[in-house]
């Protein structure tokens, strides 16, 4: 199993595009998704370089069929986000979900509906165990 490591922002954007599409994907398919919003224009060489890095890091596997190279994610979106979130909570909140929620709450980012959803979620988890 591949050890997950934090991705630089540009590589994460490539993975976000790959996770949106049905694998395997081509660099042209990724470019279409990445350039869709128009905020940033991705050049083919940049995408190819980042795809190579993602293959080297174990996030993607690649295979060539005819003239086209295809890429398939080896690490799923949920798996990566769980890794990133766990790392964030550990580094910035002393590995405490309560500290994280308290920080968000103090920033007035939680609405009454958010709090109700958190209580419902916690009750469901307690009932499952």
What are the key terms here?
Arc Repressor Mutant, subunit A; 2 domains; 129 residues; mainly alpha
- The CATH architecture designation of the largest domain is Orthogonal Bundle
Tertiary shape: elongated
- Helix segment tally: 6
The total strand number stands at: 2
Name the poorly predicted regions. Answer: none
CATH superfamily of the largest domain: Winged helix-like DNA-binding domain superfamily/Winged helix DNA-binding domain
- Coarse structural class: mainly alpha
SSE order: HHHEEHHH
Q: What helical percentage do the residues reach?
A: 55-70%
Mean of all residue-level pLDDT scores: 91
Would you write up a description of this structure?
- By secondary structure, the protein is mainly alpha-helical.
- It folds into two domains: 9-73, Arc Repressor Mutant, subunit A (Orthogonal Bundle); 77-128.
- It is 60% helix and 9% strand.
- It has six helices and two strands; from the N terminus they run H-H-H-E-E-H-H-H.
- The protein has helices spanning 9-20, 27-34, 44-57, 77-92, 97-106, 112-128, and strands spanning 60-65, 68-73.
- It has a two-stranded antiparallel ribbon with strand order 1-2.
- Strand 1 and strand 2 (68-73) form a beta hairpin.
- It starts with 8 loop residues before the first helix and ends with a helix.
């Amino acid at each position: 199993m591949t050890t997950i490591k934090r991705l630089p922002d540009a590589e994460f954007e490539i993975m976000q595009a790959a996770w949106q599409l049905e694998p395997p994907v081509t660099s042209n398919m990724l470019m279409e998704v990445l350039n869709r919003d128009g905020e940033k224009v991705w050049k083919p060489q940049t995408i190819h370089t980042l795809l190579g890095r993602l293959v080297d890091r174990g996030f993607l596997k690649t295979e060539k069929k005819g003239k086209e190279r295809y890429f398939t994610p080896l690490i799923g979106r949920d798996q990566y986000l769980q890794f990133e979130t766990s790392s964030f909570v550990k580094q910035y909140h002393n590995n405490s979900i309560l500290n994280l929620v308290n920080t968000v709450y103090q920033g007035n980012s939680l609405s009454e509906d958010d709090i109700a959803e958190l209580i419902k979620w916690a009750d469901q988890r307690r009932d499952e165990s």
